[in-house]
Design goal:
This protein is mainly α. It has one domain: A middle domain of Talin 1. It is built from 13 helices and four strands. A two-stranded antiparallel ribbon has the order 1-4. A two-stranded antiparallel sheet has the order 2-3. It is globular and about 50 Å long.
């Protein structure tokens, strides 16, 4: 058991460091091209901080472990709103970006319901995966085109580089390597703990694995909130939820079809609840207040308690 816990901790550490390096390198390269901060948050940072989920879910799918492959993504999406955005709002109220309220949050809700529709037959097939992945690519292109249309001059005037481009590339490569090794360690440790304690792997995936792979989102959102950079914080959390479904599950299902029978009504209900609950909170008062953050955090704590019990 001690060895398994150590594996989980090592895996989490490698995932956190790898994702941080990946985000720093990819964000710097994107900003060299003059991409606006919200776009960076919704795409580059969101993809980078979702990389641990990709590494873990693909690794689990290759071992025919659908419980962890799917539970990791569902649990991460729940945690991104109920834990991560909640903590960000508690640190400092988060101003609502009109684009996020009008476009990205409703899109996240629509994609969540689309996922539920795909899972009705108890499986996310390779065809479903191709549809999800295609949607993810379309979303990236659409986000960039909209950003160029709304902020064309800003995008054509990239900021001055503070370091050589090869350093950014090195950060990306090393970060990806750490993600692979970290995912392997976390996956092995989590499965061993579940077997030792007699806990179902879906519960481990929805809690320990999901929160663990969401640590990059947590760090990014909390730091962005503390610095008052609401665009990055909201864009990171909402964008990660979109990419978790479209890209992570899309790629994972293409590698290996995912069985969806391990999820219960409680898990699906929580996924819908947090996705739907975020929109009225962001519309009301044009910001996510500390009270909103406290309510989200209490709801997440209640979900975890019900999950364990």
């Amino acid at each position: 058991m001690v060895q398994s816990i150590l594996l989980v901790l090592i895996g989490l550490a490698l995932l956190a460091v790898g994702a941080e390096m990946l985000v720093r390198g990819s964000s710097s390269l994107a900003l060299r091209l003059g991409v606006a901060p919200l776009v960076v948050g919704l795409t580059i940072v969101a993809i980078g901080t979702s990389a641990p989920e990709l590494a873990v879910s693909v690794g689990a799918a290759l071992e025919h472990n659908s419980a962890i492959a799917l539970g990791n993504v569902v649990g991460s999406n729940i945690a991104n709103i109920g834990l991560i955005l909640a903590l960000g709002a508690l640190i400092r109220p988060i101003a609502s970006n009109p684009q996020a309220v009008k476009r990205d949050v409703p899109l996240m809700i629509a994609i969540t319901f689309a996922l539920l529709a795909l899972m009705r037959d108890g499986e996310i097939s390779r065809l479903d995966g191709a549809l999800l992945l295609g949607g993810g690519i379309a979303y990236i292109v659409w986000t960039y085109v909209c950003a160029r249309k709304n902020n064309g001059r800003a995008l054509d005037d990239p900021p001055r580089a503070h370091r050589a481009a090869w350093i950014d590339l090195a950060l990306i490569v090393v970060g990806l390597g750490l993600l692979v090794f970290g995912a392997r360690a976390l996956l092995d440790g989590a499965i061993a703990i579940a077997q030792a304690l007699g806990i179902s792997q879906i519960i481990i995936a929805l809690t320990i694995v999901a929160v663990g792979t969401s640590l990059p989102e947590l760090a990014t959102t909390v730091i962005a909130s503390h610095k008052g950079e609401a665009d990055i914080g909201i864009g990171n959390a909402v964008g990660s939820n979109i990419f978790n479904i479209l890209l992570i599950l899309g790629v994972t299902a293409l590698v290996q079809p995912i069985t969806a029978r391990d999820l219960r009504l409680l898990d699906l209900g929580a996924l819908i609840f947090f996705a739907l609950g975020l929109l009225p909170m962001m519309i009301h008062g044009n910001r996510l207040t500390r009270l909103d953050g406290a309510l989200l955090l209490l709801a997440y704590a209640a979900y975890v308690v019900l999950l364990v019990l």
